Amino acid sequence: MSEARATRASGAARAPADFPARVAACRARIEAVLDRTLELPNPGTARLREAMRYSALTAGKRLRPTLVYLTGESLGAPLQSLDAPAAAVELIHVYSLVHDDLPSMDDDDLRRGRPTCHRAFDEGTAVLVGDALQALAFAVLANAPEASAPARLEMVRVLADATGTGGMAGGQAIDLAAVGQPLSVADIENMHRRKTGALIECSVLLGALASGLSGGAELAALKHFGAEIGLAFQIQDDILDIEGDPRVLGKATGADAAHAKPTYPSTAGLAAARRRAQELRDAAIEALRPLGERATALVQLAEFVVSRAS
């Protein structure tokens, strides 16, 4: 048995029996934090506030804030110190979904089992929702009450890097430019690491920074972990777009093929995509070795990323 598989097996054996309940608690906590954050006493118009709440408070995996919480907890951070970074990264994620769904981007009608923001409201409102959610994310992080000024500044920098041209926006630009064009596997991985992986890696780093970690082997290990599961997550998304159940996913499948978008399975095949996702999971788990027993919950989450059906 390889070291990574041995680590995974022993980690699963050590994992607390209530791990699903722990993840559910993270989801419940971020829902409450987002609800408070989106009260917005001065929203401009009631319609904008309604549309922001409609987009951000729907049921979802909440993977990114969960990663913030689980990473921070593994390093001994109190939950209240993780609320602001968890909310910030989820607000950025929701903004990206609202804009991705627009007719000028992916042109989707369904998100998380409900009409997308531009369908439920209108396109102009959806653009403003994304703009406002992005601004709110950075305001929440800059005003994080539990973090020192240097930690807040570093968290803002990390989130900005993951959101901009070196991360999510740059990856989306590559995605748009690639429609109908052949890409190599290396090109696909570069696109995925930017478009999806950067914000997942950022979530892990935010949890670490909020805990007071500012460098060293543990931060490097967590960064590597986040990068590998970020890519694994998007490859699994590509797989689910082919063989997932729309009722479970909460959105239509086959969208990538319909839009002639290159994906990992369309480039390398489904079998190779599954193998690559598993390799990345193993590499992510191996990266956690410096954290020892503290990484148990993150090991379980890595397993979930590749085995999930939604």
What's the arrangement of secondary structure elements?
Layout: H1 3-14, H2 19-37, H3 46-56, H4 63-74, H5 83-100, E1 110-111, E2 114-115, H6 117-120, H7 123-142, H8 149-163, H9 168-177, H10 185-210, H11 217-243, H12 246-249, H13 255-258, H14 264-268, H15 270-287, H16 296-307
Antiparallel strand pairs: 1-2
Helix pairs in contact: 1-15, 1-16, 2-4, 2-5, 3-7, 4-5, 4-10, 4-16, 5-7, 5-10, 8-10, 9-10, 10-11, 11-15, 11-16, 15-16
What labels would you give this structure?
310 residues, mainly alpha, Farnesyl Diphosphate Synthase, 1% strand
Please characterize this protein's 3D structure.
The two termini are 29 Å apart. This protein has a single domain, classed as Orthogonal Bundle (Farnesyl Diphosphate Synthase). Helix content is 70%, strand content 1%. By secondary structure, it is an all-alpha fold. The protein has helices at 3-14, 19-37, 46-56, 63-74, 83-100, 117-120, 123-142, 149-163, 168-177, 185-210, 217-243, 246-249, 255-258, 264-268, 270-287, 296-307; strands at residues 110-111, 114-115. Helix 10 packs across helix 11 (217-243). A hairpin with a 2-residue loop joins strand 1 and strand 2 (114-115). It is globular and about 45 Å long. The protein is built from 16 helices and two strands. A two-stranded antiparallel sheet has the order 1-2.
